[in-house]
Each structure stands twice: as C-alpha cells, then as structure tokens.
Amino acid sequence: YQAQIWRQGADENTLSIVQANFSLRSSRIPGHIPAKFDQQKRMSTLFLPTRILTRNFAGISRNMAKIIKLEDDMLEKQLSMAAKSLQAGNIIAVPTDTIYGLAGLAQSTEAVEQIYAIKGRNSSKPVAISVAEVSDIPRWARLTVPMECLQDLLPGPVTVVMQRTAALNTNLNPTTDLVGIRVPQHKFLRQLAETCMEPIALTSANTSAAGNTIAIQEFENLWPHLDLVLDGGRIESSLAEREGSTVVDLSVEGQFRVLRVGCGYKSTVETLGTKYDLKDATDYIIPARN
C-alpha cells in the first residue's frame, strides 16, 4: 500500500484539479477552476488548507520572482541568498542533475503546503527530500542496505524510498510512512541543503500533468509564485533528456522495487541486483516523470 502511494506520487502524468469552496481572483493560477466549470465532470480534488490557497493566490500582489544566474565566483553569496529565502518560508526554483525543481524546507509545513498549491498537485502524491550527503540519510530514514550500497547509488539521479524516521516533519507526506530521498549530483543544491542544515522538499518545476523542465523559461508561468529562480542554464547531460530520477523502493530488507524508470535505471538495477545481490521485486514500473 505504501509503495503504491509512492507510485502514484512518482507519476505526474495525471491532471490534478484544485477544487476550493471560495473564489480565486486570478484565472491564471495553475489548477484554478472557473465558476462555470462543469461540476458534473470527474475531478481529482486537492485537499489543502484554504488559508494557504487564499493567502498565496487570492488577489496576488507579489512581485515577479528574482532571477539569479548561478556563477561560480558568486556561489557563496548566491547560496546565502537562497538559504535565507527558504528559511523565510519561501519556495524557490533550482536546477538539479536531471531537471529543474521547486524547493522549500521539508521541516516547514507551510512551505510544503505552498509547493502543493503552486503545482496544483494532489495531496496524496508524495514529495521527495534532498540532502547534502549520503551520511545524512540515516537521520531521516531507516536503512535496509549497507551505507556502501547507498554510496554506490548516490550522489546521482536516483531517489531511494525508505521508511521515514520520527525526525522528519509528520506533515510531509502524511499518508505514508515512506520517504523518497535524493542526493543529487549537483554542487549548488547539495551545498544549499548543507547551508540550511535540514532537508529540502524537492519536486519538479511544473504544474501537475505538465512535462519536466530543463530551462527556466519553460516554467515561466510559475515565476509569480516563487521568491527566487536560480538559473543554472539549460540542463544537458548524457542522461536521457527530461527524465527525472530513477525511483527505487528499498524499504524492505533484501529486495528492491523500481517504482519509476528515470534516467539512472540501468546502473541502479545493476548495482542493487548484481553487486549487492538484492532480489528484484519490481512488478510494475511507471514511465519517467518527476
């Protein structure tokens, strides 16, 4: 059941409709349903606190997000700016090793709720966390594999799903005891988690059902709802373009289940199955979406 929830969360290819019992003044808000919308049609309802949607989206008066071009010689200053924004409860856009993402502090319930509202994401779909080092994982999840195994997978384009610990915000993915954890192969994002000294809630920079983004211009519609947009340029690598991370369930000792193929699939299966002799319990794999 828990893995099934993560499967659902890994697949962004189903439109989630925000349905609220109050009037939103902006028709450009992702997921907004006009009053004349046919209520007889099937809807996927997003259950979020009205106060969050109201404060952030009703009668928007926020300025456009500040665009920051990431530069090596400005890294320390830009890290400080991004960390202060997150610590103030804001949501920012960041580049990763695979696609662009929306980021907020995982330990902040308000920030997590904002991420769901901005994306128009169904609240039953989990959000992963990103940490600075593999050595940070045991604080947030219970290990079923040796640390050496995680170090062979990470940093890299893999999300490992494990049983969460009590240290993690209970309002992050409250419908599941599992948590997906990333240690991306991206210097800035890892240093950002280290600077904040806590995990970052991370999900794709798009509205639900939209494609993954590899340049900031591709999610320009979200800019008004973000505090900062960190521009790392177009994300291009030897990895399959626009694929998110490979999601693998390691919550059961002695086995693994691939929940989403992603761009690290081949090396992940070889590492877990061949090197560490874990049983492949995969029964269904969701196409790559973040």
Give a structural overview:
This protein has 290 residues and is α/β, with parallel strands linked by helices. 25% of the residues lie in helices and 18% in strands. It is built from eight helices and twelve strands. The chain has helices at residues 2-10, 50-57, 75-87, 109-119, 137-140, 147-153, 187-196, 265-275, and strands at 66-69, 92-95, 100-105, 128-130, 141-142, 158-164, 178-182, 200-204, 228-231, 246-249, 255-260, 279-280. The relative contact order is 0.20. Residues 1-5 and 11-61 have low confidence and may be disordered.
| Shape descriptor | globular
Q: Total strand count, please?
A: 12
Percent strand: 15-25%
Taking all residues together, what is the mean pLDDT? 82
**Uncertain ranges:** 1-5, 11-61
Count every helix, treating DSSP H or I runs of 4 or more residues as helices.
8
Distance between the termini: 20 Å
Rg: 18 Å
